[in-house]
Amino acid sequence: MIPVPGYEGRRVAVFGLGRSGITAARALKAGGAEPVLWDDGVSGRLQAEAEGFALEDLTVADWSDFAALVLSPGAPLTHPRPHWTVDKARAANVPVIGDIELFARALAATPASLRPKVIAITGTNGKSTTTALIGWVLKQAGMKVAVGGNIGIGVLALPPPAEVEAYVIEVSSYQLDLTTSFAPDVAILTNISPDHLDRHGGMEGYVAAKARLFQAQGPQAVALVGVDDDWGWATVNALNARHLRVTTITTRTPPEFIDPTGGVPVADLAERLPDQVAAFEAGRFIIVDATGGRLVADGVSIADLAPARSLPGRHNAQNAAFAWAAARALGVSHEAAVQGLMTFPGLAHRMETVGQSHRQTDQGGTIKFVNDSKATNADAARQALMSYPTSFWIAGGRAKDGGIEDLRDLFPRIARAYLIGEAAADFAAALGDTPHVIAGDMATAVALAAADAIAAGGDQIVLLSPACASFDQFPDFEVRGEAFRAAVLNLGATPFVQG
After folding, report:
1. Average per-residue pLDDT in the chain?
2. Euclidean distance between CA atoms 317 and 230, whole angstroms
3. pLDDT of 312 higher than 90
4. Which among 140, 164, 159, 486 is positioned nearest to 345, based on CA atoms?
5. How many CB atoms lie within 10 A of CB 498?
6. Under a CB-based contact definition with an 8 Å cutoff, are residues 414 and 391 in contact?
7. Which of 74-78, 138-142, 200-204 is the least confident region?
8. What is residue 498's predicted lDDT score, i.e. its pLDDT?
9. What phi-psi label fits residue 123: left (phi over 0), alpha (psi between -120 and 50 degrees) or beta?
């Protein structure tokens, strides 16, 4: 746990007692504050009471007595309208903050000589894989690393600064909305596409929330920005106007601008590009290119990602570019950073091969079952569909705005689609003449897809990449992914072991 100082002896309201809320309360108490907890749900209040926290109905509390409101990221700050606690806090001039802001203040209170580095990652897609990948690379390089935030462990439940050399933190737009002083040493924006627009009042509000990741960064910090979308370029232009240290990450360099030799080998850098040696050794780059699965930094050949079995596809090349650049910014050697990329075991529910079946017929071939349950919108599903020439695609759930209309150019890659959940009928209409069937539930979809893949012969992919939220049939994407895994193994597939 990371104790949060600055509120000693003062009452701090904490609303929303899920993972981040109850962890924030513990961290505040450890720092000497008097957290006052409330939740609209009975179960959260019972847990808080069992841990000995003070409960107080915030609807009738005296808000003038609070030093701050720590708000759950699940409660709306602005849209579709502010949560009632936000209205009460603002009426009493009480600051509204979240767990990431508490984390930032705890770090600021740590002596500079003992303060770990912080890498923070946000974006619409790819942030969880990038977070896990960076954590892996740093750990393989021998650093003491803590990984958490919006992935895995809540940020304030991570080990205290004295036990860590680097924090690798995934942050959501909801969490960033509640920050003012968070200033990571390396800030990463993977990409931006429409998502959570109801919570941010539209695209401009959503982009502004993501850009808050960079708001408190100084000139010595590093900003790594994906520029495969227009919103990324707009962010770069704004950061350049502030004279920050910005590196762009791209996977879409036009063929005519790609060096056919693949770039200058690192071993030849001193001889062929002597002026770049100092910047390269210091981990300072202008452009990191991952087009075609080859990493090139300012014209220097870094790595061919083809041997990295857990990093298939353009989107994973982008993730690898972020991870390599972030590790280099923290002083990890080029060789150690590349070795970390090549040994990454992958992230559960994100392009995760969970099983495979080998045909016992003259046709031969292998069927791989790929769990991409974390693809909760069409843009994320696009990355998965683009990773394979063809696939038997399981999709559906609770659709986001626009459904799968933006995926029409990829419909020819779909051997057949198996539709589940609330979106099944709408997705069927969108697919039109593309082969599809309404399967309804996960087990049926997996069984149908496996049978069709067997009949097709050769090597085939059965891909769960729902392009939807999970909340119609599952509590979250993780449970959905585990349901896919169970259905695959129930068919007799062999569990896939990375190696």
Report:
1. 94
2. 19
3. no
4. 140
5. 11
6. yes
7. 200-204
8. 57
9. left
